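Notebook entry, structure prediction.
Reason for the run: the old model in the group folder had no record of what sequence produced it. Starting over properly, with the input documented here first.
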Amino acid sequence: MSERTAGRRRGVRRRGVKYTAGRDGSALLVSSSPKFYQALEPFLSETGLEQIQAADSVAGARRCALEQDYDYVIVNDPVGDEGGSQFAASVSESPGTICLLLVPVEIYEETRAAMIPCGVFVLAKPVAASTIRRTLGFMAAARARLRMAEKKNLTLQEKMSEIRLVNRAKWILIEKRGMTEPEAHRHIEKQAMDLCITKGQVAQGIIDESEK
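New structure, fully documented this time:
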């Protein structure tokens, strides 16, 4: 399935039909019915998505999921002769993906119970427009919380990386310049303040110099 150049506004392409997308984020729609994409497009546009990819089989959806991570995955089950529940459970394991599974009302309760541990949203078909809009709102809120957690996790990882660099640099100063641990610590802090750079950058400079 083709896409426009990265950074430009994109649309969904399926069998020559283009579905307009919004501005930010990505979604994978999995359904064997072209009408499914047409019905969902107005609601997805409201969420401000930049990229909407379509797959008309579970095998095609798996290929898409292997190529990139999606913010949202919406599965219209059954997908042809294949069940979408297993794919929904699998793709929801990606830490940044929110998944919605639409199933026939006859199997809704059973499927909902099975999907709760996977964190998959489940709706029974047919679905009212107000329910779709409300559920997509819940999904957007959940994705925003995930992004906040991802950002906090990244900040923590960066902080831990800096601590490891500083500790390594302090041991170099202790071993090669005869400083005590408090002296090495103050030396790195003073260099960071005098040069207006981070302690991690000072530490990296000390490490690089020692390796020459």
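Summary: The two ends are 51 Å apart (CA to CA).
The old model has been moved to the deprecated folder.
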